[in-house]
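Protocol step 4 of 6: structure prediction from sequence.
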Amino acid sequence: MTNQPQPQITPDDLAAKWSNLLNQAFIQIITLEKQLATQAAFIQEMKANETAIVENIQALESELAELKSSPSPHTLSQAATELAAEGSAIIADEKEKAAPTEAA
């Protein structure tokens, strides 16, 4: 085995490598901070959307409850038919009452 001389690492080499590693670390930190800010803004937007959706759901549930408690078109139609029949009966009754008076 031949002994090959080990390459000598100088302090300048170490400083250059260390500086390069620090630069890479700072770039990575800056990149991560930007990603974090973007994600924080996205989360904030999602929370606002969630709030709006919850408010819309509550409004729709309230509207649905109101619609369920109001009479249906069929019920309204039946009520109108009954009212018309009652009105016709009253008119006929009043005409009957007025007929003898007119004849006299």
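Step 5 (inspection) to follow. The chain is about 85% helix and 0% strand.
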